[in-house]
Write a structure and sequence with these properties.
By secondary structure, the protein is an all-alpha fold. The chain contains 4 helices and no strands. Helix 1 packs parallel to helix 3 and helix 2 packs antiparallel against helix 3. The radius of gyration is 24 Å and the shape is rod-shaped.
């Protein structure tokens, strides 16, 4: 997935995904609004027995498609992040079981040093 939208990447890379959750809510609302507009336009078309404006309909469907794609990208990124976190938790559990208290403390100290070095 190299062509992910920048909004999806920025939101999904946020710690804990608070921005991603908010963006998903916004996307769901926007998708619902467009679907409602399309349905309303179709009802009006049926009532008036006139054709729907093809340019407007095309724009509405294109906007809907883009919003749905961004939503799918966000969900895919969040799922990948959750899998990585689950893998890290499982790895920590395995390593913790295989080390005594002293060795585990040494492993944690080294990990803290490495993580602080990356954050600097």
């Amino acid at each position: 997935m190299t062509d992910l939208s920048s909004a999806a990447l920025a939101a999904a890379n946020a710690p804990g995904f608070p921005d991603a959750r908010l963006r998903l809510i916004e996307l769901d609302d926007a998708i619902a609004r467009i679907r409602t507009q399309i349905a309303t336009a179709d009802l009006a078309r049926q009532k008036q027995r006139k054709p729907i404006d093809p340019d407007w309909f095309h724009k509405a469907r294109t906007a809907l498609r883009h919003l749905c794609r961004e939503r799918a990208e966000l969900l895919a990124l969040r799922t990948g992040q959750r899998r990585r976190e689950a893998m890290k938790d499982a790895l920590i559990g395995v390593l913790r079981e295989r080390h005594d208290e002293e060795a585990w403390a040494a492993v944690l100290a080294e990990a803290r040093l490495r993580s602080e070095g990356e954050g600097a």
